[in-house]
Amino acid sequence: MIGIRVFFVWLMLALPAAAQQSGPPVLIVDSERLFFETAYGRNLTETLAAQAAALQAENDEIVDSLTQEERSLTLRRPEMTHEAFRAEAEAFDTKVQEVRRVRDAKNVDLQVATAQARAQFEDQVQGIIANIMLERGAALVLEQRNVVLSVRAANITDDAIARIDRELGNGEP
Fold first, then answer.
1. Residue 158 contacts residue 34 (beta carbons within 8 Å)
2. DSSP string covering 66-127, please?
3. I need a surface site. Which of 45, 50, 130, 173 has the fewest CB within 10 A?
């Protein structure tokens, strides 16, 4: 407990006097709110959700088609020789495995696209957050989920959302 107090005293002494007078030396931002409440973040979220829905619809169609094909093979089995059934069953199994491999690759591509979109958003927003930090004379910006207790004035999320919307719009050129 004494170590924490010593750290805070040291932090207050280490910060420039101007930063101490103009506002909290440490600011807080909720990056989840930035992503989901800005026009840019909502645009990315909607685009990614549409891609995920299209992929799911495609997956559903493929599952339906494969289910029908399997049902057809099962119904024709009594009329087929053992060798003919085995050959068709193996071909069907190979087809299913290839479809699964392609589907898995598309799911990974969507996950990568999602991560890249989020990283691009964060890169674009970082400069805006840095400007707010400098304007307020703060020395540090912390993520909301890492903060246990703070004064309300330290949270810049609402201001950051407004500025991101003003400067970046929905993120499209």
1. no
2. HHHHHHHHHHHGGGS-HHHHHHHHHHHHHHHHHHHHHHHHHHHHHHHHHHHHHHHHHHHHHH
3. 173
